[in-house]
Structures are given as C-alpha cells and as structure tokens.
Specification:
DUF3097 domain-containing protein; 2 domains; 11 strands; SH3 type barrels; about 270 residues; four-stranded antiparallel sheet; 7 helices; DUF3097_N; DUF3097_C; alpha/beta
Length: about 270
C-alpha cells in the first residue's frame, strides 16, 4: 500500500508567512524570548550577534519567525555576498537611500571646537543633511551670550549649543545660564573634552586617564597613554575609532539628539 503524507492542519491555524529580512550590520531587532534588543554586528552560518545600547553582546540562532523588527515578526536571514546598502545611519536612524540634502535651515547648532564638530558630523552627518541643519564651531564659549544675541534666535531660526564640561558650579554652567532666549537651547555633557565622550573600549584603551590640574588635558592624555604628544594625530586616532553611535557615551548621544529635535521643531 502506498503511503501518503498530508498536512491536516486547518488553513486558519497555519502560521501566516512573515517577511525575510537580511541581517545587515546596524539593523536593530528584538529577540522576543529574552526581550534583548540590539543592532546586528555579525551574522554567521546559523547565528546572529546583537549589541545593545550598553555594548552588551548576545548570540542568537537564525530561526524562522525569531525576531521582531519595529514590532513586527520577521525571519532574519544571512545577507547575500553582494554590495550591501546600509539600513541605518551612523546615529541609528533609518537610512533613506537616495535622499537629497535639504536646503539649510536658518537655525544652527553651535559646538565648542573643531573636534566636537567633526565628531557630530561623523555620527549625525546623514541626519543633519536630511534635516538641513548646519553645525558650526565657536573655538570656546566665553562670549556665548553675545554670540547668541548676534545670531538673534527666533521661532524660524532656533539655535542649539553643545557645551563641554557642563556641570553645576563651573564657569561653563554660569555662561549657559546667561543665555535666556526661549529659542536658544544650551545643553552639555560632563566630560572635560569631547575626546572623553568616545568609549575607551572603542579607542582600545582601558580608560581615559586623569590629568593633573594645571596641565594641558589633551597633552596629558597623550603622555599618560604613551602616545606621541601630537594632539592632532591623537584626535585622528580617536575619530577613526568612531563608526556609529555605539562608540559614544550616552551623555553625549542624548544631548545631540535633543539639540537636533529642538532646532528642527515646527515653527
């Protein structure tokens, strides 16, 4: 007698098909069994490695219907070997292939120095171009109230300012408090210099050294780490270690996102 196999599951009980999504680096998904949410950093035969916003790594099997993408069930599959189009920008935003840069807004974001501007460009550059936001650096904030007055912020020209070492009781905090326009927002991170806002693990060092008072901080960092005392070369080394938002401390990430939201708020 010939044997037949049949699927006797009623159609209404069969699971609905779900989309297959390539596990491209940077894709943010959630593993529903554990609730672990992170960006894909590696996909190998049968497994995918995710990294959450705290830098923790977890390896999961590539099982059917095994992940959530923006709340929807998907099946992750290994990417093809062809050219890969990024699905996320360096800031973690959804990439918009082919998007043109928007004409620059009247609003601006000011940062203290060139290194701050280069770091913001490295991580948020794609987002800023789509939003039409220009970032400029000031070479210090001692004259910030006068600079803000000269800019003349208004409802159609908001101004955001990112300040280094903005902690209570400092000179920086007193300067920031002197800016009172409702169309200007001054925020900052707690680090002495924006160098410290890069995670030591990304740079390949155990931690940022403490530099004695009275000593140039950047030169002291180079000396303590055994690097050549060339701060320009040191900064390039640090900047080259930054590939996405995952390489930055949350204290900086949150403040830059806050400034972008403020400057691009509806008129």
């Amino acid at each position: 007698m010939r044997q037949y196999s049949a699927d006797l599951t009623p159609p209404w009980k069969k699971p609905k098909p779900v989309p297959e999504v390539a596990a491209e680096p940077g894709l943010v998904v959630e593993e529903p069994g554990t609730g672990f949410c992170g960006a894909v950093i590696r996909c190998e035969a049968g497994t995918v490695t995710l990294e959450d916003r705290f830098g923790k790594h977890r390896v999961f099997p590539l099982e059917p219907r095994g992940f959530l993408l923006e709340g929807r069930v998907v099946t992750l599959v290994r990417p093809s070997a062809g050219p890969v189009r990024p699905t996320r920008t360096a800031s973690g935003s959804v990439a918009v292939p082919g998007a043109r840069a928007r004409v620059a807004r009247a609003g601006r974001i000011y940062v203290e120095g060139r290194h701050d501007a280069e770091l913001v460009e490295r991580v948020w550059g794609d987002d800023l171009r789509i939003e039409g936001v220009v970032v400029e650096y000031l070479e210090g904030i001692d004259d910030l109230p006068a600079i803000v007055d000269e800019f003349g912020p208004g409802p159609d020209a908001r101004l955001g300012v990112l300040v280094d070492h903005l902690v209570p009781g400092t000179k920086e905090s007193r300067i920031a408090e002197a800016v009172t326009s409702e169309y200007a927002l001054v925020v900052g991170h707690p680090y002495i210099d924006v160098w410290e806002a890069v995670k030591p693990s990304s740079v390949g060092i155990p931690g940022w050294p403490r530099v004695p008072r009275g000593q140039d901080w950047k030169t002291g960092v180079c000396r303590s780490l055994g690097w050549p005392e060339n701060t320009g070369a040191a900064w390039q080394r640090i900047l080259d270690s930054v590939h996405s938002y995952r390489d930055l401390q949350p204290e900086l990430l949150g403040r830059v996102e806050e400034l972008i939201d403020f400057v691009t708020a509806p008129e």
